[in-house]
Structure prediction request, 147 residues.
Amino acid sequence: MFGTRWQPFSPVWNQVTQLQNEMNRLFDRWGGDGRRAQVDFPPLNIWEVDDALVVEAELPGLDMKDLEIYVTGTDQLTLKGERKEKLPEKSLQHRQERGFGKFVRVLTLPIPVDANKVDAKLENGILTLKLPKHEAAKPRKIVVKTS
Prediction:
């Protein structure tokens, strides 16, 4: 008779614990002051074409002089810069949804790239980087010898 204790509320308690865990995950998405937590800036899209990786970053209101782009090694991309707030003097701000200030975004690229051949252009607030694949990342055709 020394088996497990009878716990009539165990299924209910499990559901309460599950609900608590789900609520914690939901609130983890929000900052402690009730505002949305910081998201990665700038937002990026990355895709692969035959001979390169292409990275697009949304950088509205940013001048190229306020942006630094680095490729470290063969697979690490860094975007560093500052988006400056442009408010007229003696203005009264009613809402601010766009963020301003310094930012750094570092990401590991999915394939090695050739840092010496990167092409970058900023047009209409969209930064487009073309990062050619490193020779080691390009596929090589293997010739099979027959006897």
